[in-house]
Amino acid sequence: MAQTPAPAGSHQGGLPYALAAYGLWGFVPLFFKLLGSVPPAEVLAQRIIWSLPFCFLIMVFRRQIGEYLAALKDWKVLRLLIVSAALIAVNWLVYIYSIFTDHVLAASLGYYLNPLVNVMLGMIFLGERLSRLQLVAVVIAGVGVAILLAGALDTLWISLTLAFSFAFYGLIRKIVPVGSLPGLAVETTALLAPSLVLAAYYIWTGDGRGFGSDGSITLLLMAGGIVTAVPLLLFATAARRMSYAALGFVQYLAPTVQFLLSLSVFGEPLKPVQLACFLLIWVSIAVFSFDMLRKMRAERVMPAA
After folding, report:
1. Could you read off the pLDDT of 172-184 as tens digits, one per residue?
2. Whole-structure pTM value
3. I need a surface site. Which of 16, 198, 205, 304 has the fewest CB within 10 A?
C-alpha cells in the first residue's frame, strides 16, 4: 500500500533513511572517478539499465510488484513519475559530468543550495510557511550566487542545475501517491528504452573505453545500478516520512563530504570568488539551521504543553 505524505513538521522515522542516503551520496564521487575514461552519457545509461533489475529483485522480496504495475496503469501517477524520471536523469548526467571534469566543488555548491530551494518549493507548492530567518537565509545564499556570476560563471550552471533539478524531483516524489521502491522502478522503466539505445550506440561504436571493453570497467558500470538505486530509494523513503524543510536540513551532510573530497582527495583549486560564495552559503545554512532547530524544539514542547 502506498504511503501517504507526511504532514509538514512530522518525521515518522525518516531521519535514519535521510542520513544513510546523503552519507552515501557524499562519497559517490570516489566511485565515479573510477569510470573517468567512460563517456558520461554511457555511464548514465548503464546506471539506469542496471538499477532496474536491482529494483525488481527488492520488489519481489517485498511483494510490491502489484503496486509497481498499478502505478504503470494509473496515468495521473505515471505522468508525474515520467517528469521525475526526466529530472533525475538530468541531475545524474550533470553530476557525472562535474566529477569527470574535476568540478566536484561546483557540484558541492549545488547541493548546498538545494535545501534552500527546497524551502522555497515547500512554501510555493506545499503551503509550508517561510519564516523571517529562512527568508534571510535565502537572501544570503542569493548574494553568494550573485558573486559567482561575477567570477565563476563557467561552473555556476552546474550548481544551479543540480540544485533545482533535485529539488523538483524531491517535490514530485513527496506528493505522488506511490511507494518509494515502486516509484523508483517506474522511473527507471520510463528511462530504460532511451538508455538501451544509448548503451547500444556506445557498444556499437566500440571506442574501447566503455561497457565490454574491460572486465573491471564492465563490473563497475554494472555496480553503478546498486550505487544509484540504494541511496535514491533511501531518499525517496525519507522524502515521504519527513517535512520537506527538515529533509533539506539533513542534506548538508552530502555536500560537506563532497567539498572535503574535492580539496583533500581530488586537489581542486578553490577560487577566491568560490570561497566567498561558500562562506555566504555556510552563513545562510547556519541561519537556516538555527531556525530549524528552534522550530523542532517548539514542536516538542507543544505536545507536552
Report:
1. 988 899 988 899 8
2. 0.82
3. 304
